[in-house]
Task: inverse folding
């Protein structure tokens, strides 16, 4: 089981190096990230993009494969092709429009989509208790409906199990911990909890609604008199919409100063999508997570 993010880095460094295809890799910042990832033994890379720019910015002593394709759309398709032909085991977004990158990945005929919603998950060390905590969705699903929330939960459960959890504890968040018919998120939480009880969502213990404090803190849950296996001990936090997830993730990095890795789940192979504002360490952790998952 991966107990913390430093443990993740150690395990990836000692594992067989996985090959990562980087789409639109000509950006200097992306190439610096690749250089650092190679130095840390987090993987090997195939760089797809403008070969002249890549060769100008990549370290000269690196024995690294470069595919010359300056066109963003064609570079994205080539990255997917490398995954489909088993020449790479993960795909990473470089400096290109997210819509172009995802269009190639989600292509129904030739992409990596396996018929499930694609969702983003932030992974960080727990503040209360030991182990990793997962927060989702923080970047993809704007305002998910009940069915989409079910898929987001299933993606997070899949990731948690790959990280070593047997039956992860899933807390569905809202503004308060009681069902209120005027707050639709609490109604969804109650339904999703019952779906977990009846096996419609498998391999996890699901409960909600929870406010954030009584989902993660045993003391806060005890103060409110909230009981159950999930209360105060959540492994996975499900937010009601992208706005909440995005703000919470940024609060973790900017207020709490936590290291955060990002995973994109729901596709056939790991996808790495980092933000330009992410710290270098967080970008490297996201690469490490994808390498581990592949």
Result:
């Amino acid at each position: 089981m991966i107990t913390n993010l430093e443990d993740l880095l150690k395990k990836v460094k000692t594992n067989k190096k996985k090959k990562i295809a980087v789409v639109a890799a000509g950006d200097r910042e992306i190439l610096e990230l690749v250089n650092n990832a190679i130095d840390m033994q987090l993987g090997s890379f195939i760089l797809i993009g403008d070969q002249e720019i890549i060769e100008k910015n990549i370290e000269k002593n690196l024995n690294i494969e470069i595919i010359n394709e300056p066109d963003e759309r064609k570079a994205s398709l080539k990255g997917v092709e490398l995954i489909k032909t088993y020449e790479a085991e993960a795909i990473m977004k470089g400096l290109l429009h997210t819509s172009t990158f995802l269009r190639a990945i989600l292509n129904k005929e030739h992409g990596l989509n396996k018929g499930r919603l694609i969702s983003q998950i932030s992974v960080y060390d727990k503040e209360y208790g030991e182990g990793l905590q997962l927060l989702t969705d923080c970047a993809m699903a704007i305002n998910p409906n009940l069915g989409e929330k079910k898929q987001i939960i299933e993606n997070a459960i899949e990731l948690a199990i790959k990280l070593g959890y047997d039956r992860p504890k899933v807390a569905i968040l809202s503004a308060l911990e009681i069902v209120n018919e005027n707050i639709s998120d609490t109604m969804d939480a109650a339904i999703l909890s019952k779906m977990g009880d009846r096996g419609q969502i498998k391999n996890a213990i699901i409960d909600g609604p929870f406010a954030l404090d009584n989902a993660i803190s045993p003391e806060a849950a005890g103060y409110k008199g909230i009981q159950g296996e999930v209360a105060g001990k959540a492994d996975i936090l499900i937010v009601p919409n992208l706005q909440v997830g995005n703000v919470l993730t940024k609060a973790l990095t900017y207020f709490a100063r936590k290291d955060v890795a990002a995973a994109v789940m729901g596709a056939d192979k790991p996808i790495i999508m980092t933000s330009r504002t992410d710290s270098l360490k967080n970008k490297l952790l996201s690469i490490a997570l994808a390498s581990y998952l592949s």
